[in-house]
Design brief:
single chain; 201 residues; mainly alpha; Serine Threonine Protein Phosphatase 5, Tetratricopeptide repeat; 8 helices; flat; TPR-like_helical_dom_sf
Length: 201
């Protein structure tokens, strides 16, 4: 019985050794490929980014004048007003390497700033929509959530709350449209959002 057991042991050891070397080679190739792409991206010269699809905040999203005594609405208004004269870009799904290669390495700090502005915007819109809904201002909440979706927000709650409003209105067409927009997201949240929407339909 010793020899069969030894043979099995040697086969397993050989397989594990082969597997380990194969994995190491794949990791090394992946790392080398990454640095090749990174070096290429770092050498990309500055490109014109003045005509990108910058996001503008509509004035109608600031319906606070008659509700200025609501503290939570005021907290949402401040960042929106601050962002209204800043550049905002939705760069969800793009890596820094891709951004440098597409727009030039020198533009990366600016692009990251514009992307951060987008993150602040969609978070604020989600908070604003929720508060408006709490106050019974469903039309304003619907408008706020719909704008967030139109610019590519990937916040799950934004889609859920808007879907609930559409369901309350028995607006099946808008629900289908919302699902279509969620399906087009280039975000890790896409699958979760679609799962949530399927539960609401």
């Amino acid at each position: 019985m010793l020899f069969p057991c030894l043979a099995i042991f040697l086969c397993i050891a050989a397989f594990l050794t082969f597997r380990s070397r194969y994995t190491a080679q794949k990791d090394a190739a992946r790392t080398e490929n990454f640095w090749e792409r990174e070096n290429e991206a770092n050498s990309t010269p500055r490109r014109d980014i003045s005509n990108l699809d910058y996001i503008k905040i509509p004035e109608e999203l600031l319906p606070f004048c008659r509700l200025s005594d609501d503290e939570q609405l005021n907290q949402c208004e401040a960042p929106l007003v601050d962002l209204s004269d800043k550049k905002i870009l939705n760069l969800i799904g793009k890596t820094n390497t891709e951004l440098k290669k597409e727009y030039g390495a020198p533009n990366l700090p600016l692009l990251m700033e514009y992307d951060e502005n987008f993150t602040i915007l969609i978070r604020t819109l989600n908070q604003l929509g929720y508060r408006l809904k709490e106050l019974g201002l469903t039309q304003e909440a619907r408008t706020t959530y719909a704008f967030a979706v139109s610019i590519g927000s990937d916040i799950t709650d934004t889609y859920v709350q808007l879907a609930l409003l559409y369901k309350k209105d028995a607006n099946a067409a808008k629900l289908r449209e919302l699902e279509t927009k969620a399906s087009a997201l280039q975000s890790d949240s896409r699958k979760r959002i679609l799962e949530k929407l399927n539960l609401i339909k």
